Amino acid sequence: MKGSLLQKILEQGRKNIGNGGFLQYNENIIYENGTWKLNGSPLVATSTYRVALTDFLFTGKEANLEFLLPGNPGIVKVYEPATSVSDSRSDIRLAIIRYLEGKK
Questions:
Q1: CA-to-CA dists, residue 75 to 13, 93, 94, 98, angstroms
Q2: Phi-psi region for residue 92, left (φ > 0), alpha (ψ -120 to 50) or beta?
Q3: Which domain, by its residues, includes 82?
Q4: In the chain, how many domains are there?
Q5: Considering only CA atoms, which of 67, 64, 56 is closest in space to residue 19?
């Protein structure tokens, strides 16, 4: 998604604290002096960022995130979920197993 949409989602998430409707993110994303930063650099509105979303969050039905839909112009590409049981992406447990197998 474009940085402008990601920033809008993050801003709305700050407003939604306690009511749901916010992204979970790690320590690499911070809000500092009115600016969202990723890995220490400000988000860039025209840059593209990869974001993982649940199906429900991407329906626009979450609190105050009605703009978060696949047709939003800020969405660059949507990767469809895997449906084959043999595909590691279809089940988080398989993904973890395959990851750990690769650590041997």
A1: 18, 28, 28, 30
A2: alpha
A3: 3-102
A4: 1
A5: 64
Half-sphere exposure of 12 (CA within 13 A, CB side): 18
Q: Which two tokens stand for residue 72?
A: 């939003």
Q: Is the pTM of this model over 0.85?
A: no
The residues pairing with 104 across neighbouring beta strands, listed in sequence order, are none
What contacts 31, CB < 8 A, 6 or more positions away? 10, 14, 37
Residues 6 or more apart whose CB falls under 8 angstroms from that of 3 comprise 43, 44, 45, 46, 47, 48, 49
Tens digit of pLDDT for each residue in 35-91?
A: 999 999 999 999 999 998 888 888 988 889 999 999 999 999 998 777 777 777 777
How many helices (DSSP H) and strands (DSSP E) are in the chain? 2, 3
| Rounded Cα–Cα distance for residues 47 and 44 (Å) | 5
User: Which residue from 55, 58, 102, 62 is spatially nearest to 83, judged by alpha carbons?
Assistant: 55
